[in-house]
Design a protein that fits this description.
The chain is built from four helices and six strands. The protein is α+β, with helices and mostly antiparallel strands. A hairpin with a 4-residue loop joins strand 4 and strand 5.
Length: 136
């Protein structure tokens, strides 16, 4: 495989893993929203089922997502997401990542889910433009 493409895939993987990493917080804490939002274009759209019990997919801006993610008393309980495996495809200055991950709730419950990230490279930096997600 082309070394340049492999390098781009590693950079993209790092962006995605950082998004999961900064969402983690202990009981009483908060995600690192400033770092999280820096990984996205301001106009990014998120289409996802925020919690496993949600009846339908929510269509959210980044700001709406930060509020929705802290629902269901999550701040008091703590939360993290663990990446499991992914598939990355790069075509020029666009990329997609199919990411299997686990939602880790403080009560020990774990829920497997899938994120589909779309990324765009502008000014030599990969950032997320969209995420679609649902439970497996």
């Amino acid at each position: 495989m082309n070394r340049a493409i492999e390098k781009e895939k590693q950079i993209i993987n790092d962006v995605v893993e950082k998004a999961y990493d900064v969402l983690a917080f202990p009981p009483g804490g908060m995600p690192k929203w400033d770092v999280f939002m820096s990984l996205f274009y301001e106009s990014a759209q998120l289409s996802l089922r925020v919690f496993p019990q949600d009846k339908e997919i929510s269509l959210l801006t980044l700001v709406e997502y930060t509020k929705a993610q802290m629902g269901n008393h999550l701040q008091e309980e703590g939360y993290s997401e663990s990446p499991v495996s992914n598939d990355i495809e790069v075509i020029g200055d666009i990329a997609w990542v199919r990411q299997h991950f686990i939602m880790n709730f403080s009560n020990g419950r774990k829920t497997h889910a899938m994120d589909i990230f779309l990324l765009v490279k502008k000014e030599d930096r990969w950032k997320i433009i969209s995420v679609a997600s649902d439970m497996l």
